């Protein structure tokens, strides 16, 4: 059931049926059983994974075309203005003006600009036609059109697939404040934690609902599975006990009545379903990093790009050292992958030098590798051929940990999906001992559980890591250093900060091109609204911190009281870790908000 204002995250392993369910909800697929009921007159917006239109309208026109209700009100207003001199005309004009104003008509252009800016479109691109953009950017245009359509219900299938980190952050915040109901399919854990209040999990052809965000869902699911297994085990024990009694005493006259009574109890017993089998994500352990130089690979005053006439980045000084996990951040097209390929030695520098340390062995992953795999062998056979000294059990374990368990590892690579091929390429890298890993968007086709597995493996890895990703969850847990690329320059520093996920202020511009005065006015209004939202959120955070710390103290007391109960201590410790994480997050948000409001 989806009620007005519900924000639902639809999750599940790849291939579990999430997209199929969305297509059924929107009417593209019929239901094999039951009914799909949509309230009469409800406006349903739908963003499939592939929404490339090739429209010849400009970006601005295409995005604005989603505002159908507002455009209809504008047409009514124009008609009323044209007939203002007719009998009853002034009254009709007043009604049309009020309706247009109350619907936000006079702020429509500002809203269009804010959405386009949030999704990463620079003002100079707003008047380009849609068909001049790549497929990924056309997906952003389709997303902008849906966000501006004022639906009653919106259905999003992997809306972050083609978004950079800044656009993902903006979208998560935008959806969190959305007045309409929506269902979003996403493997982006940070987005799900930020913007949903319910989670529906598709598992074993059933849908299970949980209240709260993604982190809350994980805790609730674990508890639910434990309770289901316990209830099933108890009932099976009771059934076995009753059946033994019936079998033993059913033929004895002195016990026949009791045996019949127990048989009736068995017949009437409402059987508890066997616990659903949830494939546990295997632990992924990367090979130990071989000894090598502390300064693994360096770029010295390097210029990178495809042409000396138009370099992507210049003056790059970068040292990737052992134990360092560097994440490159910046908008799409800024040069992150170019830097990675330059460090890997896969592209020639336009200027400067690349220094490779002694005994350094580099392993590289990028999405193109999936297309280079041979089609005939199975993943298991291919990886066994590449790694003859690695036991087959280890190969199977790695494939399973990356989401290719059982029979999936035995299918010919040629019949696998693009995402599954990418997992094979990633597994190939994981099996090779390297002391430097360079990963370009390794989580693109991984579900949330598999992302967790990869994150833990990278956290335990002792070599150097260079990572390009738009997944905030991964950045926050993996990065020891951040390299921010902006204006053709690379800035390196230690640690991760909240502002790393916001669009740099230098990129923030006005929202219309009507006039400089209009831009300034609209920008001031936008900043005022942002400041007001920040002040309100700051007050909420200040109210939430004492409550969270009180819960932390309560759990500390409970841990002391339960010192001899190992199972209870384990559960309380898990709860305390979650609450402590929430407290840390609140304090980090508090600092960022105080800086924002001045």
pLDDT < 50 stretches? 506-519
CATH superfamily of the largest domain: P-loop containing nucleotide triphosphate hydrolases
In CATH terms, what is the fold-level topology of the largest domain?
Rossmann fold
Quickly count the domains: 4
- Cα separation of the termini: 43 Å
Largest sheet: 6 strands, mixed
Number of E strands: 15
Number of helices: 18
Mean pLDDT value: 84
Give the C-alpha Rg: 29 Å
Question: Per CATH, which architecture of the largest domain?
Answer: 3-Layer(aba) Sandwich
Q: Strand order, biggest sheet?
A: 2-3-4-1-5-6
User: Would you tell me the structural class of the helices and strands?
Assistant: alpha/beta
Q: Give the percentage of residues in beta strands.
A: 5-15%
**Oligomer, anyone?**
single chain
CATH C-level category of the largest domain:
Alpha Beta
Shape: globular
**Helix share of residues?**
40-55%
Keywords:
single chain; alpha/beta; Rossmann fold; 4 domains; six-stranded mixed sheet
Explain this structure.
This protein is an alpha/beta fold and 598 residues long. It has 4 domains: 7-66 and 108-217, P-loop containing nucleotide triphosphate hydrolases (Rossmann fold, 3-Layer(aba) Sandwich); 232-268; 295-505, P-loop containing nucleotide triphosphate hydrolases (Rossmann fold); 515-597. The protein has helices spanning 18-26, 59-64, 68-82, 89-102, 108-118, 135-147, 165-176, 189-195, 214-249, 256-268, 336-344, 379-386, 392-401, 418-430, 448-460, 472-478, 516-561, 566-597; strands at residues 7-11, 44-47, 153-157, 181-185, 198-203, 206-211, 295-304, 313-321, 325-329, 351-356, 362-365, 436-440, 464-468, 481-486, 489-494. The chain has a 6-stranded mixed beta sheet with strand order 2-3-4-1-5-6, sandwiched between helices. Helix 15 (448-460) links the parallel strand 12 and strand 13. Helix 3 (68-82) packs antiparallel against helix 4 and helix 12 (379-386) packs across helix 13. It is globular.
């Amino acid at each position: 059931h989806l009620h007005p204002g519900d924000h639902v995250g639809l999750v599940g392993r790849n291939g579990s049926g999430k997209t199929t369910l969305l297509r059924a909800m929107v009417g593209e697929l019929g239901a094999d059983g039951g009914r799909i009921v949509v309230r009469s007159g409800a406006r349903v917006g739908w963003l499939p994974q592939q929404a490339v239109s090739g429209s010849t309208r400009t970006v601005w026109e295409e995005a604005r075309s989603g505002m159908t209700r507002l455009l209809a009100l504008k047409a009514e207003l124009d008609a009323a203005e044209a007939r203002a001199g007719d009998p009853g005309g002034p009254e009709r004009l007043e009604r049309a003006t009020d309706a247009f104003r109350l619907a936000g008509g006079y702020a429509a252009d500002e809203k269009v600009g804010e959405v386009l800016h949030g999704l990463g479109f620079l003002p100079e691109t707003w008047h380009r036609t849609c068909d001049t953009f790549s497929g990924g950017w056309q997906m952003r245009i389709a997303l902008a059109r849906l966000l501006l359509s004022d639906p009653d219900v919106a259905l999003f299938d992997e809306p972050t697939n083609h978004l950079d980190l800044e656009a993902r952050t903006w979208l998560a915040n935008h959806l969190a404040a959305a007045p309409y109901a929506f269902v979003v399919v996403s493997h982006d854990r940070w987005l799900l934690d930020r913007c949903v209040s319910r989670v529906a999990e598709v598992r074993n052809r059933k849908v299970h609902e949980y209240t709260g965000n993604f982190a809350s869902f994980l805790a609730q699911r674990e508890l639910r599975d434990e309770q289901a297994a316990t209830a099933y085990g108890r009932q099976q024990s009771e059934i076995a006990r009753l059946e033994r009694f019936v079998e033993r005493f059913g033929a004895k006259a002195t016990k026949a009545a009791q045996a019949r009574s127990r048989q009736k109890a068995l017949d009437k017993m409402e059987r508890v379903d066997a616990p659903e089998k949830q494939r546990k994500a295997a632990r992924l352990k990367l090979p130990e990093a071989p000894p090598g130089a502390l300064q693994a690979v360096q770029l010295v005053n390097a210029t990178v790009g495809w042409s000396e006439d138009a370099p992507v980045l210049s003056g790059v000084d970068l040292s990737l050292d052992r134990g360092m996990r560097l994440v490159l951040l910046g908008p799409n097209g800024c040069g992150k992958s170019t830097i990675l390929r330059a460090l890997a030695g896969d592209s020639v520098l336009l200027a400067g030098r690349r220094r490779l340390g002694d005994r350094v062995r580099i392993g590289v992953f990028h999405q193109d590798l999936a297309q280079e795999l041979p089609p005939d062998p199975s993943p298991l056979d291919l990886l066994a051929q590449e790694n003859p000294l690695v036991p087959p059990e280890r190969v199977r374990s790695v494939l399973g940990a990356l989401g290719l368990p059982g029979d999936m590892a035995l299918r010919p690579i040629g019949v696998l999906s693009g995402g599954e091929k990418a997992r094979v390429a990633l597994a190939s890298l994981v099996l090779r001992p390297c002391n430097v890993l360079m990963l370009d968007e390794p989580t693109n086709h991984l579900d949330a559980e598999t992302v967790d597995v990869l994150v833990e493996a990278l956290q335990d890895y002792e070599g150097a890591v260079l990572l390009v990703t738009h997944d905030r969850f991964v950045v926050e847990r993996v990065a020891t250093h951040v390299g921010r690329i902006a204006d053709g320059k690379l800035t390196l520093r230690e640690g991760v900060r909240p502002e790393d996920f916001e669009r740099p202020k230098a990129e923030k511009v006005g929202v219309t091109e009507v006039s400089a005065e209009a831009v300034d006015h609209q920008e001031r209004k936008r900043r005022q609204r942002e400041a007001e939202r920040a002040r309100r959120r700051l007050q909420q955070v200040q109210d939430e911190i004492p409550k969270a710390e009180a819960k932390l103290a309560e759990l500390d007391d409970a841990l002391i009281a339960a010192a001899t109960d190992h199972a209870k201590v384990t559960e309380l410790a898990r709860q305390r870790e979650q609450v402590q994480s929430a407290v840390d997050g609140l304090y980090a948000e508090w600092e960022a908000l105080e800086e924002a409001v001045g």
